[in-house]
Amino acid sequence: MCGRVRVPEEIRRRGFAMGFEPCVREWKGRFPPPDRDWGITANLAARRDVLERVGWFDPVLGPGAPLLCGEEPDLLFRVLKAGYKVVNASEVVVDHLGARALGPESRALWRTYGVGTAAALFKHVRLGDLDAAALYLRHLGVLGRVLASNAVRGRRPLGLRYTLAFLEGARMSFRYRVDRARRLYVAR
User: Which of 66, 94, 109, 188 is the most exposed place for a label (fewest CB within 10 A)?
Assistant: First the structure.
């Protein structure tokens, strides 16, 4: 279950904090689009038996881990791949109070999101998972459309750093072996 994550206005004025506003109530047998409906751990709950079946968070993904971030899309991908459903419960709300200052701090955070998300997906691509490959390519397509739209409008290339970080995450994925049975990176 992924709940709504609200960023209060007073926090938003201090800088950037990630929020989550669910669009579709349930996902089962298919994957959310790359640019929405992937919940965040600020408001995520799971049944223990599901985690025991699909595996816990990958220790090589996440804050402070070598591949920086990506623990949510990896876990949710494995949950959906195993045939379980993900419920986006907009009625379950938490306020996210951890803001990053705008500028270098928030840019660094977005870099971790790009690297981690790609590393999470590319782990499954390396295992030959066609759903992961399609999702990775769809994500690149969304990023390409954002970049092209900004270029056509004469705006600075918003999204370029994230796109480069996303490509870097796929490359960084190869620094680690993948346990095929558990679908987890093998820490060095």
Answer: 188
User: Does the model's pTM come out above 0.85?
Assistant: yes
Q: How many domains does the chain have?
A: 1
What domain range includes position 25? Answer: 2-186
- What is the distance between the alpha carbons of residues 146 and 66, in angstroms, rounded to a whole number? 28
| Backbone dihedral region for residue 118 (phi beyond 0: left; psi -120 to 50: alpha; all else: beta) | alpha
Q: Cβ distance 102 to 16 under 8 Å?
A: yes
**19: helix, strand or coil:** coil
| pLDDT confidence of residue 9 | 95
What is the model's pLDDT at position 186? 96
Residues written for the chain: 188
What is the greatest pairwise CA distance in the chain? 51
Bridge partner residues of 185 (DSSP): 178
Average pLDDT on 163-178 reads 98
| pLDDT for the residue numbered 64 | 92
Concatenated DSSP letters of 109-177 = HHHHHHHHHHHHHHHHHHTT-HHHHHHHHHHHHHHHHHHHHHHHTT---TTHHHHHHHHHHHHHHTTSE
Q: What is the dihedral of CA 180, 32, 39, 63, to 10 degrees?
A: 40
Q: Output DSSP code: residue 101.
A: P
94 or 35, which is more confident? 94
Average pLDDT over residues 24-36: 94
